Amino acid sequence: MGNTEILKRGDVQLTSAGTGISHSEKAHGAKQVHFLQIWSLPTTSKLPPKYFTRHFSDEEKTDKWVRVVAPVGAEGVVASREGEGPAPVQSPLTMYATLLGPGRSLSRSLGGRKGYVHVVQTSGYREGKGEGASVIVKEKGPGGEPLTLREGDGAYVFVGGSGNALEVENDGDRVAEILVFDLD
Questions:
Q1: How does pLDDT run across 55-67, given as a tens digit for each residue?
Q2: How many whole angstroms separate alpha carbon 129 and alpha carbon 163?
Q3: Domain 11-183 has CATH 1.25.40.10
Q4: Taking a C-beta distance cutoff of 8 angstroms, is the pair 134, 170 a contact?
């Protein structure tokens, strides 16, 4: 497809492989690279390959959920290579991101009631006991069983209560970078 790009903090690159592509990644320069590569299965097969980039600043994500990926055709989704709003995905998932400060909490309703929460590892890789950010995840409302996640941890969640919302609270001493996937 002829795309070459240098990604920076806050960039989202979405590639729809479709009928097939050749793809490679490499570090630009001598610095260590840290990124997440997330795959989803499309709802339609044999689509033409497509490529999208979006940028979301730390300021946009600070202590609030920002929709960074959403299904093609969803409200506010623009299917241009570089555009505003969430990157368009050919899967029934919506991904939200936040940078949640210590002592702060956010709720996120899950349209499909199923989700996945991931605490991004920003303090660097090390063997042994996990360090860095720590969050408590639970269903909003009475009866929600709390689960503690640290940097690099993730968990599938099912929100079955009448509020149908997930609550994430930063119980650590530093900013936690968190992704929530709303899975239909």
A1: 999 999 999 999 9
A2: 35
A3: no
A4: yes
